[in-house]
Structure formats: structure tokens, C-alpha cells
């Protein structure tokens, strides 16, 4: 597709379960970002990948959260032992290269809405 | 990383020009200023980006004074469909490196009325 694709669009799970959220960036985009957004708040940075490596994971709230991008394209955000406070919309964005801050833009997906009961 | 401050909300009427100002007092020399628009149940969408003076595209204009401690997003002749949250971000040209964590604030909720 032409844009950033995120699956699933909605996920309902029970407290304590394991969840995976997938992001398929725009083809050729080397930079990939994960954000989390709660109702009424701006997106909160979680982690940034440049290629296959996590260049900045300072936003991951705790060790229950982990993200991978093994081939430098698709990324998976993994949440272990989910808690009710993890409920939010998880947004993925990609950009053409690491210089996007100066001359480019982030392209966001529609998000994955996670609800932990 | 530079912190940004924006009004929480603004109201306008169709056909009016809307100006949203963002303060970023500790902006760094290499930082650019970028604005995003977000509709409910959608991801943010890039509007405009600039470094200094004025930038204009088909959607908006961005005014940046010489000291770069603030910026103003100008939306000409808004319509109902411009009702959205608008975010101002600052970041350096290499923010993809150690400065990867682009910070979104709470944004400005713009409500356009008929």
C-alpha cells in the first residue's frame, strides 16, 4: 500500500495477556517510530528505529514493552503481561531517512487501539 | 530537547483566518519547527515545516521570527473540515539519531463553527 499500515486496528485483551502490534512502513523508509496516545493527550514517544536497530528506546515505559524490526522494514511492538493502564492507541510512523527532522516529515498510520480489560 | 507551549483550544468561524502560536524558548540552533494536524481516530498528518522567516504551502503558512523562540501557524479561510488538533514540534536535522524522540505536546484543539 501507499501508506503506513498497522494491524490490528483494534485489539481487546485481558489483563496479564501478551499482545503484538504490527507496523508496515512505507516502502523505502528507513526510520520507524512508535508512539502511544491516550485520550485527550498528544502522542507519547516510545521507540525509534533506524534500519534494524533501535536508535532510541528511551520512551518505552518499562521492560514489559519491547519492539523489533528484524529486516529493517516491518516492526512489531510487543507488550507482555498487559495492564489496564496500557490501554491506548499505538501509532506507528515512518520517514524516508534520519534527516527527516530537517527536510522531511513523519508519515503516520491509523493506529492500533488496544483495550485491556 | 526543546519544549513547546501552545494554547489548549481555539474557536473560529468558517472563512476566518486562524493563527496558532507556539512558544519554544529553548530551541536549538539545528532545530526545525514542524506542525502536524490530527483528526479523531487518525494519525497525525504533516502540515508544514520551517527553520526561519516564512514558509508557505498550499495548506498553510508558517511564520518564524528572527529569534526563533516562537512560531505561528496560519490557516487561511478555515472551513469546518479544519476542526482538528494541531501540534507544534521542534527537532534537529539529525533527530533520527540520538535525538530520535520527537516530543508532541497536548496540541491546540481548533473548533471551526459555521
Q: State which percent range the strand residues of chain B make up.
A: over 45%
The H/E string of chain A reads EEEEEEEEEHEE
DSSP summary: helix tally of chain B = 0
Secondary structure: helix percent of chain A: under 10%
Rg of chain A (CA only): 13 Å
**What is the distance, rounded to the nearest whole angstrom, between the alpha carbons of the first and last residues of chain A?**
32 Å
> Which regions of chain A contain 5 or more consecutive residues with pLDDT less than 50?
none
Q: Could you give the order of the helices and strands of chain B?
A: EEEEEEEEE
Mean pLDDT of chain A: 91
Beta strands of chain A, count: 11
SSE topology sketch:
The complex is a heterodimer of chains A (117) and B (114).
Chain A: E1 5-7, E2 10-13, E3 19-24, E4 31-37, E5 44-50, E6 53-56, E7 65-68, E8 75-79, E9 88-95, H1 100-103, E10 107-108, E11 112-116
Parallel strand pairs in A: 2-11
Antiparallel strand pairs in A: 1-3, 3-8, 4-5, 4-9, 5-6, 7-8, 9-10, 9-11
Chain B: E1 9-13, E2 18-23, E3 32-38, E4 45-50, E5 53-56, E6 61-64, E7 70-75, E8 84-91, E9 108-113
Parallel strand pairs in B: 1-9
Antiparallel strand pairs in B: 2-7, 3-4, 3-8, 5-6, 6-7, 8-9
Question: Describe it for me?
Answer:
Chain A is mainly beta and 117 residues long. Chain A is 3% helix and 47% strand. Chain A is globular and about 35 Å long. In chain A, strands 2, 4, 5, 6, 9, 10 and 11 form a seven-stranded mixed sheet that branches. In chain A, strands 1-3-8-7 form a four-stranded antiparallel sheet, with no helix packed on it. In chain A, strand 5 and strand 6 form a beta hairpin. With 114 residues, chain B is mainly β. Chain B contains no helices and nine strands. Residues 95-99 of chain B have low confidence and may be disordered. At the A-B interface, strand 4, strand 5, strand 9, helix 1 and strand 10 of A face strand 3, strand 4 and strand 8 of B.
Structure keywords:
heterodimer; A: 117 residues; mainly beta; globular; B: 114 residues; four-stranded antiparallel beta sheet; 46% strand
